[in-house]
Amino acid sequence: MALRDLQNLIHCTRYVRRRNMAMRKNLVLYHCSEESREENLPSESEWYEQTFPKLIELAHLLKNVDSVNRRLINIDDHSIVIDDSLQQSMHTFKSLARVFLGSPTVQQSLTTQTAIPPLCFTKPCERGPMTISSLTKVCNFLNISAQQRKLIRLAICPQVTQHQIWTGALKELLTGLKSETELLGHHTPYKGIIMGQQIVHSCLKFLDAAVTYDPNSTSWMRLSPSKVSGSPVTHKWEDILEMFNDLMNCLRKEKEKLFHFPKLEVMKEGLLQIKDVVVDKNIGYRETRHQESLVQKKLTKTLGHSSRCLFTLLMFYLYGSVVDVEVDISGGIYENGGKDRFCLCMGKFLTSGEGKTVQSGVKQLDRALGLFKYVWETARMKGDLELQGHLWCVGAEETSVTYRGNRFFIHGIRF
After folding, report:
1. Were 353 and a residue from 30, 171, 180, 396 both cysteine, which residue would form a disulfide, CB within 3.0 to 4.6 Å?
2. Phi and psi, residue 120, nearest 5°
3. Which of 208, 326, 312 is CA-nearest to residue 264?
4. What is the extent of the structural domain holding 82?
5. Residue 175: which region, alpha, beta or left (left: phi > 0; alpha: psi -120 to 50)?
6. What is the pLDDT of residues 175-232, one digit of tens each?
7. How many domains does the chain have?
8. How far is Cα 343 from Cα 345, in angstroms, rounded to an integer?
9. Structure confidence by residue, pLDDT tens digits, 340-371
10. Helical H runs in 211-333?
11. Shared domain check, 179 and 88
């Protein structure tokens, strides 16, 4: 009942400007059904005191759940959790936690740690969430010049458009979509889902034919294509492009529940550029290699710096994943105690301070930070860039861990 009241409160709240009060924050939550009388508004400290128990209650409710790229994941077995009520509770939890992150108590605790840049997370815009879906967003964040962006694209494109990266990214997308449609089919089976599952199966079968040879073996080890009587059917990438269109039509009604659905449209950008390229295991090794090189050349030439398809290929190249990068707390780049020394800080909210939850949060932040460091180094930016991850949990003790050479701080949310 208390949780329902909290959700109703959050849905029906808005920020109003407090007048004639010297408060550190000018905005406070206010129930919209009441008259906006200044004398009825709680003080800042009163609001934190009244709201903190509700934050604790939400953290307890979501104890074994983590939010990974807008999906709820069971920490114990890493299974996807489909529950609209829990999803709303997670959204409410993060919204409240973000307000507490700007509280005097939490801000003061950051300034007492010498290893953390002094101005870290002090601005409201630095405490907001961020989704990165293109190289342009990364470069804007890092303040990379137009000339350097050209260098980045020239360096990245030949690497991420290799045939095995391209086909691997498509297979990763379809495999993820296959799991999601199977899970959704158990809850809400209908004709579109069943048809979608069949199309996904056909797409994966097509990709198996596209990967004709082991790219690591030498040409003399390759078997000659088997002779086929009659005129064999020649397939092109246009075939899978048509299947993608049909797949999107079948699943459109459930697209809000399918995390990988938007990536179908993203990858269509690349398919449109190579639709005339042949995919056929019966054309021989040399011709196959030629067709594979055409895929790389066409994608390298046409995928621009702002392309979400190019970014998806980069994510698969770096991490074997096709999902976009999301962080709860965007942070920023801060001076780090010397000339040309900088520190990139980003953060995440945790529902629990237990080991598995912390480990999951650290890995997510490490992936986001690593992407920015990769682009920074590819652009040959001047200066050293240190990476710091910050994780906030209700009532946690201040501590830090090191993961893959980077430091991650665990902070407690208090008032």
Report:
1. 396
2. -65, 125
3. 312
4. 44-106
5. alpha
6. 999 999 998 888 777 889 999 999 999 999 999 877 755 555 444 344 444 444 444 5
7. 3
8. 6
9. 899 999 999 999 999 999 999 999 999 999 99
10. 237-251, 261-273, 285-302, 308-319
11. no
Tokens of 233: 């059917």
- Per-residue DSSP letters for 335-395? E-SSTTEEEEEEEEEES--SHHHHHHHHHHHHHHHHHHHHHHHHTT-SSEEEEEEEEEEET
Cβ 97 vs Cβ 293: under 8 Å:
no
Sheet holding 384-394, edge to edge: 329-335, 341-350, 384-394, 406-413, 399-403
Does the predicted model carry a pTM greater than 0.70? Answer: yes
Residue carrying the six token digits 């494109």: 157
Residue type, 180: E
79-87: long-range contacts (C-beta < 8 A, 24 or more apart)?
80/179, 80/180, 80/183, 82/183, 82/184, 82/187, 82/257, 86/61, 86/62
Would you state the structure tokens that stand for residue 317, as one six-digit string?
């190249």
Question: Can you tell me whether residue 273 is helix, strand or coil?
Answer: helix
Domain membership of residue 277 (yes or no) is yes
CA atoms of 222 and 206, how far apart (whole Å): 20
Give residue-wise pLDDT tens across range 41-93.
567 888 999 999 999 999 999 998 998 877 899 998 888 888 889 999 999 99
Q: Are 300 and 158 in contact (CB under 8 A)?
A: yes
Given a contact cutoff of 8 angstroms between Cβ atoms, the answer to whether 167 and 336 are in contact is no
Q: What does the DSSP 8-state code read for residue 72?
A: E
Give every CB contact of residue 348 below 8 A, 6+ residues apart in sequence.
327, 328, 329, 361, 364, 365, 389, 390, 391, 392
The DSSP secondary-structure symbol of 219 reads G
Question: DSSP string of 80-146?
Answer: EE--HHHHHHHHHHHHHHHHHHTSHHHHHHHHT-TTS-TTTT-SGGGGS-EEE-SHHHHHHHHT--H
One domain, residues 263 and 169: yes
DSSP 276: T
The two three-digit tokens of residue 51, written as one number: 């709201």
Helix (H) or strand (E) holding 205: helix 191-210
* Pair (338, 360) in one structural domain: yes
Residues 6 or more apart whose CB falls under 8 angstroms from that of 108 comprise: none
Q: Residue 55: name the closest of 342, 334, 414 by CA.
A: 414
- Same-domain pairing of 157 and 81: no
